[in-house]
Amino acid sequence: MTYENVILDKEDNLATLYINRPKAMNALNRETLLDIKAVLMDVKNDSDVKTLIITGSGEKAFVAGADIAYMHNLSVSEARAFSQLGQDVFRMIELMEKPVIAAINGFALGGGCELAMACDIRLAAEHAVFGQPEVGLGVIPGYGGTQRLARLVGEGRAKELIFTGDTIKTPEAYRIGLVNHVYPGSELMDQAKKLAGKIARQAPLAVGYSKTAVGKGLQVDIDTGIGMESDLFGMCFATEDQKEGMKAFMEKRKPDFKTK
Ligand code: CAA
């Protein structure tokens, strides 16, 4: 299937989603969000795909935010619906069991920073720029930024970034824990693929259960969280991968996980 505003590339066990509106710095309008949603459904249902990388087309931008040209005349109810659409699509990334890696190749502002934050692991090019500049436009982050930024970098840093609209470069984003790794732009995609490959060699169901345990655990108290963990740990023992993984260890060989 072809999309107007994104490109989906599949190779072996890896899917790569390129947000593809380089002339508008890959800004997110309604159609682009719907394309991302369709890609997420596709990736979720494709048993050959084990990991997804999300990146931006072109050299300059990952995503420079929600599309300001699209938004500028929205009514209150249209704006709320546009916010909810982005929130729902980004939440799909978090709820999908397959790991999603953001390869941040340039500007990740507003909705772009929010998209990156909804991914599981963030790798950034040295030249990337991050921020939530919404207050300078008379609005607030609307795709989960007020919630995820505080969870990722702490309340004080999140409030300062959001209240000032300041942008930060990759080294500072790395320092505050917004990104996991920093690479020269020319190496970013290779490194993202390397990481995706490493994850794809692990037991797929166990990776998915881990994502669920960490993600859902962050929403609840520790006792509920560890309760979910032991349930999921138990469920692993109903899988072929657990049998193969532990048998391979005892036979001193590499496991051959068959689950898709
Ligand atoms: N929406 C729509 N168009 C955008 C855009 C956006 N978020 N960001 C960039 N563009 C467009 C520009 O309008 C310009 O189009 P034209 O060539 O037709 O004029 C084109 O992309 C290139 O942009 P610039 O000429 O501005 O490029 P630059 O290199 O000088 O600056 C930039 C790059 C710093 C990213 C700058 O474009 C910018 O500040 N963009 C807006 C960033 C922003 O405020 N994002 C938050 C949006 S609100 C939001 O995201 C709300 C939410 O949470 C839901």
From TrEMBL:
UniProt protein name: short-chain-enoyl-CoA hydratase
Provenance organism: Syntrophomonas zehnderi OL-4
Family classification: Belongs to the enoyl-CoA hydratase/isomerase family.
Gene Ontology biological process terms from the UniProt entry: fatty acid beta-oxidation
Superkingdom per UniProt: Bacteria
Reactions accelerated catalytically: a short-chain (3S)-3-hydroxyacyl-CoA = a short-chain (2E)-enoyl-CoA + H2O
Molecular function per GO: 3-hydroxyacyl-CoA dehydratase activity
Subunit note: Homotetramer.
Pfam families: ECH_1
InterPro entries: ClpP/crotonase-like_dom_sf, Enoyl-CoA_hyd/isom_CS, Enoyl-CoA_hydra/iso, Enoyl-CoA_hydra_C
